[in-house]
Design brief:
52% of the residues lie in helices and 14% in strands. It is α/β, with parallel strands linked by helices. α11 links the parallel β7 and β8. The protein is globular and about 45 Å long.
Length: 308
Amino acid sequence: MLGPVILAASRSDKMRRFVSAAPGTKQVVDRFIAGETVDQVVPIVVDAAGKGLEVTLDVVGEDITTPAQAEAARDAYLELIGRLKALELGPRAEMSVKLSMFGQALENGHELALANVRPVVEAADAIGTTVTLDAEDHTTLDSMFAIHEELRKDFPQTGCVIQSYLFRTEADARRLAAAGSRVRIVKGAYKEPASVAYQDKAEIDKAYVRITRILMEGEGYPMIGSHDPRLIAIAQELGRQAGRKLDEYEFQMLYGIRSDEHVRLAAEGHRMRVYTAYGTDWYGYFMRRLAEKPANLLFFGRSVLTKG
């Protein structure tokens, strides 16, 4: 299994330097990363809106080691929101944030992350959009869910992410599938031990279906994060069985992956949101994309060989 090896490499400074210097890296990174600056990502939002798509924007970067870096991350999101406001794009674009980027792993990290993310949620609300808290490794989730609950007191549309490979997630889904909630279900992209997570792909997929059913039968707003045609079809059927209209849940896929499917689902009347990452600190995000699908790794390998 290459996935766990790649995920381990995502934490290696030596591998970071190697991958960054590889001749073919830029070609592959450009497939998954929309750009490095706000100026580069705004036209992508405009283009998506013209195709009937929505986006969720992620300023990449997780290896925060100082409070000043956490504040810089906050300010990067505030800059993004300012640009979306000026262009009246708020309703087409929400934000996805990783609390590690806001200082969650630092001393007093829970309080620091909450203090840094709140202004972002406030600013997003002011332009008619919202924020979703991304799930990271299992050790961070209790803090993430507590921050999510706190933010929802003032901003009830604040969303969160749950991961089907974790044993705990079915219980989390039942708790979260309440009126007004927004919950994104994904398989999970971190290296987790067998004590807390399924290791077999078939078991992860079965859990994904069980959790999707819980969300569809609940009172919240499910966000189906998957590129798997089978799981997408199952989600559509579970939505139908639950009596949901097409605008009462949405699909989410990554920028650069199955772009034709983005447009097809939107044309069928589904809400379709493209997870669009940008920024200079792309390494961790990039490695998780390689780990998720062997074809991505093969694409990277061919690019390195042909550019070398």
